[in-house]
What does this fold into?
Amino acid sequence: MHVTVDGQKVPAQPGQTIAAVLHKVGRARIFCGIGVCFDCVVTLNEVPDVRACQRIAADGDDVRTRS
It folds into this structure.
């Protein structure tokens, strides 16, 4: 399973959140992990303002970070 992060294809595990994928590849800070702080907001499949800690990764997801 793979997702694309800012144009780069990266591996993901079934059941893993988008935030966990981003953290694994060094692209995310995770403060609360439960959707309270909004620090993990990304654009997911062209939908802006998605909380990465609240979304389970799906094969082929396109993630755009703010950095």
Q: What stands out?
A: The CA atoms of residues 20 and 26 lie 10 Å apart. The longest strand covers residues 47-51. DSSP finds one helix and five strands in the chain. Residues 18-24 form the longest helix (7 residues).
